[in-house]
Amino acid sequence: MLHPSRLLPLLFVFLWSTGFIGAKLGLPYAEPLTFLLARYLLVLALMTILVLATRAPWPADPRQIMHIGVSGLLVHALYLGGVFMAIKHGLPAGVTALVVGTQPLLTACGAGFLLGERVSPRQWLGLVLGFVGVALVVANKLGHVPLAAMLLPALVALLGITLGTLYQKRFCAHFDLRTGSLIQFLPTALLTALAAWASESMHIEWTPQFAFALLWLVLVLSFGAISLLNVLIRSGSAVNVASLFYLTPPSTAIIAWLVFDETLSGLALAGMVMAVSGVYLARTAVR
């Protein structure tokens, strides 16, 4: 029987993958930053209640509060904002997944310089194999689209999640998940509110589908997946954690097949096997 700690990465991948499904369900009814702002505000409200009810401890060092806030801006504001804007403005989800899917390779490059982590040849092999697998999964979704302008938000998302993972591992790997979430989401909500006010109408069409998508992203993603990500960053190497993001596009493709009846080609299935194999190599390599 698998130890519960070994199931956490798999649970994280599944929950994180459903975020793309939630975005697809909710984005027809709200602009991307407005959608995210509603999500952040609801997270802050619910987390404040939880913090007060459980008397969760706050960081004693003001510098730790600053570091947690910066990590939140990178992981939430830049990453989620970039992904949502890229999809809303026409970049195919497959292309978005491929761009963000380069994150483990960038993280591996930065891990040695910023964290002093050694990336072994077997890990590099796993990371490259995983990237090729992700490319195969999304290859049939690339199509012919004007990429130049639409790629910018996806590149911002890639930069945010890469720097956020490294920054959090380096400066604030350990914090209470309840108060830490408040500290992360507060500056994220403020920045997102300013950006939405400056660039969007901030109108929301409150349909049952949008309400479901919003609640799913708040409860399952912001409470569940983000908490698991923080736990994984705390307990594992940056490269190991980043390698899990290779599993997100295959997992999302399977969920989209089940929920939206999107087809899966033989090439995509082969890519899934390669991505899983790459993650296995990266996570089991001797460091």
Automatic annotation (TrEMBL):
Source domain of life: Bacteria
Keywords: Membrane, Transmembrane, Transmembrane helix
All residue ranges annotated as the EamA domain in the record: 8-138, 152-282
Membrane topology field: Multi-pass membrane protein
UniProt-recorded name of the protein: EamA domain-containing protein
One Pfam family matching this protein: EamA
InterPro entries: AA-Vitamin_Transporters, EamA_dom, EmrE-like
Chain segments annotated as transmembrane: 32-53, 65-87, 93-115, 124-142, 148-167, 179-198, 210-232, 239-260, 266-286
Family the UniProt entry places it in: Belongs to the EamA transporter family.
Record bears the keyword Membrane: yes
Cellular compartment(s): Membrane
Coiled coil: none
One cellular-component annotation, GO: membrane
UniProt key word Glycoprotein: no
Source taxonomy: Bacteria, Pseudomonadati, Pseudomonadota, Betaproteobacteria, Candidatus Accumulibacter
